[in-house]
TrEMBL record:
Signal sequence, start to end: 1-20
PANTHER family assigned to the protein according to its UniProt record, in alphabetical order: SORTING AND ASSEMBLY MACHINERY SAMM50 PROTEIN FAMILY MEMBER, TRANSLOCATION AND ASSEMBLY MODULE SUBUNIT TAMA
Domain annotation Bacterial surface antigen (D15): ranges: 580-755
Coiled-coil spans in chain: none
Cell compartment(s), UniProt: Membrane
Organism, scientific name: Chryseobacterium edaphi
Transmembrane segments: none
Swiss-Prot/TrEMBL keywords: Cell outer membrane, Membrane, Signal, Transmembrane
Protein name (database record): BamA/TamA family outer membrane protein
Domain of life the protein comes from: Bacteria
Length: 783
């Protein structure tokens, strides 16, 4: 232990000496009279300003100063050093060019800093925040060819709003502005703030757009600050319409005609067809519920436009309906370009025509995909998919997708007798852009609700073990409230699993591993499923969230009606197959934090439980939880971890199968730091923790527990597996290739007092590396 400590001390001492040398060496490259600019600081002299407000002002001012000094890491400037020590490359390519001009940074010198300009920025920003008497000065501090600038601000008192006055007149637009003043952002007692003033002008414009003033603009509003009405640092805010506001901007417009061109393309535009403005009456179209559709070949049913468009003839223009209509047309999925224009048709009565110019996508596509893959369970394989898509199946933007596929996975080594796998199947899905139900369903969402119907079949053969025939079908709905919230309800989701060709080799393992028999037991699973997704990851924020909750209720009504109870010997069957009865819930919560545009932190927490009852003693194998592998706890191979503290090694030594470990309870926590090295090359450091557990013990026919330690208990925290590692991510835009190297830090099936394995780490031992360093190769991020 003492020798290790000495090694660490020497390492840190050497690191410190190297850091000091790199830090000092950057200045030796400077020419005579040059000084390296190391940054700026703003000091605020004001005894009456609260500390919190002073810190906010200081941070905002420093953010606006230019230029920024060379980037640093732990007090060092490695990018500047790389620039300095790298000789001038002869060509604009190669390692030397990359080090100097791509990775490296040119030195930022004191001579690059316009201190007067920065002083003006400080004063102007302060005035925009209500410090009308702000004064600033600067001083330069230099030492050892390094210089920093200290800016000192005396902001004076911050002016507050005394009252807000919306100037009235008799015009229609002014009356609408008066109706908007109750929700003004300008509040008496708040500080004067130019950004709030800009937001108030935009708020008024948004409100007027929803009242038919299509040609209005935020610049038509002027907000004046009068500081002469008070001597105690107060200002009166005066909001009024500019005198030079155009006449068109003062008028409230209504919709005259609604015209739809669903087959517009650039070739027609070049020929002079479909020019805007035009006279709709001269076009070869037809009218449907006050919508004029120009579709000579009748590729689309007009009813789909009636559902998507929220404008009717005679309606007052409303920007919410305007955007809603465009978004719903896009979400139909059949148009690649959607454009909208309004053309004045009656200037006296303030009417305009609404034109929707739609360019359809290719209505049919045929795609062949060939995939190669490998995973941490020592499988390598390939998959071939043939997909056909028809985006206008019944001329109402119904999307029909059909696919056939074949795949094989070959075991390329490893500790388990997992056998090779062959899969083949076909499925078809019809997605209808409305709710198909005996009742009316009206949605004001920007996203078109959909009815999804799906049917499929898969043939899976594990050579020398068994064959599974899986039939599935579902009917349900999918809808989004907004860009953040999405719902999916499957009223019926049916799966029939019919095993065949179970070999004696596999059957011989039943006595020791009764759960293996459940894998090849006929299963009938049906019932409703519901999932809810909430996500802010698409928003430009530093902190974003993702949540998905899923509820699966199988066989509940049928079990209740038939009085099924397997524990009392009342197991019920349908067509000779016992149906499954259980309730399952799963939650997936993710949090993302952006440090910069190129560095971030990502985390995920998964919690799930599946409870069998009534007609089922166990959860169907296909509906259980699994952990391990490239998208889970990466230090353990896929499906080999758990349940609980169950030790699979004796089973493995006896020729058992360890790649099918499943559980009824799942807890998992992942954390990952992500950074960019260069363009497409990203790195990550991660920690994963979690496990699965059983609701009931796995008992053989003699009542012996065949997976001891697998049941969930109060000691579950001591059975949580932990792994960590590093990864490379190659981001090629069209796909992300991920390489993650992980090792276990805590193994739940070791003795309870010996589960942390930090003292056993031995990178020099080839056997240790083989058993403990797990390489995961995958496509895309794990979460």
């Amino acid at each position: 232990m003492k020798s290790k400590f000495n090694i660490y001390c020497k390492y840190f001492l050497a690191s410190g000496i190297t850091a000091a040398a790199v830090s000092c060496s950057n200045t030796k490259f400077l020419k005579e009279g040059q000084m390296l600019y190391t940054g700026a600081e703003v000091k605020i002299e004001n005894d009456t300003l609260p500390k919190k407000k002073k810190n906010e002002l200081k941070a905002a001012l420093e953010e606006n100063l230019t230029p920024k000094p060379n980037s640093s890491f732990l007090g060092l400037r490695p990018k500047l050093y790389a620039y300095n020590v790298t000789k001038e490359p002869k060509k604009e390519k190669g390692l030397r060019y990359w080090l100097k001009y791509k990775f490296g940074e040119e030195p930022v010198l004191l001579g690059d800093v316009d201190r007067e300009f920065n002083k003006d920025i400080i004063v102007n920003y302060s005035e925009n925040k209500g410090y009308f008497n702000a004064k600033a000065k600067y001083d330069t501090v230099s030492k050892n060819k390094k210089a920093r600038v200290i800016y000192t601000l005396n902001p004076g008192a911050q002016y507050l709003i005394s009252n807000v006055n919306f100037v009235q007149d008799s015009s229609l637009v002014n009356r609408e502005i008066q109706n908007l003043k109750e929700k003004t952002l300008l509040k008496a007692g708040n500080p004067f703030d130019l950004d709030v003033i800009k937001s108030e002008r935009q708020r008024i414009d948004d409100g007027l757009k929803d009242k038919g003033f299509y040609y209005f603009n935020p610049d038509n509003i002027i907000v004046q600050a009068d500081s002469t009405v008070s001597k105690d640092h107060k200002v009166e805010m005066i909001v009024k319409l500019k005198d030079n506001t155009p006449k068109l901007a003062r008028e409230q417009f209504t919709i005259d005609k609604v015209v739809v061109f669903p087959n517009y393309n650039l070739r027609d535009a070049k020929k002079g067809l479909y020019k805007i403005p035009m006279n709709p009456d001269s076009l070869k179209g037809y009218e449907y519920n006050d919508i004029y559709v120009v579709d000579p070949k009748k590729k689309f049913k007009p009813r789909m436009f009636d559902r998507a468009l929220y404008f009717d003839k005679g309606d007052i223009y409303n920007r919410k309906d305007h955007n809603l209509s465009l978004n719903r047309l896009i979400s139909l999925g059949v148009f690649k370009f959607v454009k909208n224009e309004f053309v004045v048709s009656d200037s006296i009565n303030h009417k305009f025509d609404a034109y929707y110019i739609l360019t359809p996508r290719e209505l049919q596509s045929l795609r062949l995909e060939a995939l190669g893959r490998t995973n941490s369970a020592n499988y390598a394989g390939s998959e071939l998919n043939l997909n056909w898509t028809q985006r206008n199946f019944f001329r109402g933007a119904e999307q029909f997708k059909a696919s056939v596929y074949g795949a094989f996975d070959v075991q390329i080594g490893g500790p388990a007798d997992a056998e090779n796998i062959f899969r083949a199947g076909a499925n078809a899905q019809l997605s209808i852009p409305r709710i198909v139900a005996p009742f009316n369903f009206n949605s004001s969402s920007a996203f078109v609700p959909r009815t999804n119907i799906q049917i499929g079949y898969e043939f899976q053969n594990r050579t020398t073990l068994y064959t599974l025939n899986t039939f599935n079908a579902s009917f349900g709905y999918q809808w989004k409230e907004n860009v953040r919230k999405e719902h999916e309800l499957k009223l019926i989701d049916v799966s029939l699993i019919d095993p065949a060709n179970v070999t004696p080799k596999y059957e011989a393992k039943y006595p020791q591993n009764p759960y293996l028999e459940r894998v090849v037991t006929p299963q009938l699973i049906f019932g409703p499923t519901y999932s809810y997704t909430y996500s802010t990851t698409m928003l430009p924020r530093k902190n974003t969230f993702y949540y998905k909750g899923m509820l699966d209720l199988a066989g509940n009504i049928t079990g209740l009606v038939t009085g099924a109870n397997v524990k009392e010997g009342k197991e019920k069957s349908i067509f000779g197959v016992p149906f499954s009865q259980y309730a399952k819930i799963e939650n997936d919560l993710r949090f993302y934090h952006k440090f910069t545009e190129k560095t971030s932190f990502a985390s995920r927490f998964i919690a799930g439980v599946a409870l069998p009852y009534g007609n089922s003693e166990y959860i169907p194998f296909s509906r259980q939880f699994f952990v391990g592998g490239s998208n889970s706890i990466r230090a353990f191979r896929a499906r080999t971890l758990g349940p609980g503290s169950y030790d699979p090694r004796p089973q493995q030594q006896n020729g058992g199968f360890v790649f099918d470990q499943a559980g009824d309870i799942k807890l998992e926590l992942n954390a990952e730091y992500r950074a960019n090295l260069y363009k497409f090359l990203n790195v990550a450091a991660f920690v994963d923790a979690g496990n699965i557990w059983l609701i009931n013990d796995d008992l053989d026919e003699n009542g012996v527990n065949t997976r001891p330690g697998g049941k969930f208990s109060k000691d579950f925290l001591s059975e949580v597996a932990v792994g960590a590692g590093v990864g490379l991510r190659l981001d090629f835009s069209i796909l992300i290739m991920r390489l993650d190297l992980a090792m276990p830090l805590r193994v739940p099936y070791y003795e309870k007092s010996d589960r942390w394995v930090l003292d056993r780490i031995n990178f020099g031992d080839s056997n240790w590396r083989k058993d403990n360093l797990i390489l995961n190769i995958a496509i895309g991020y794990p979460f």
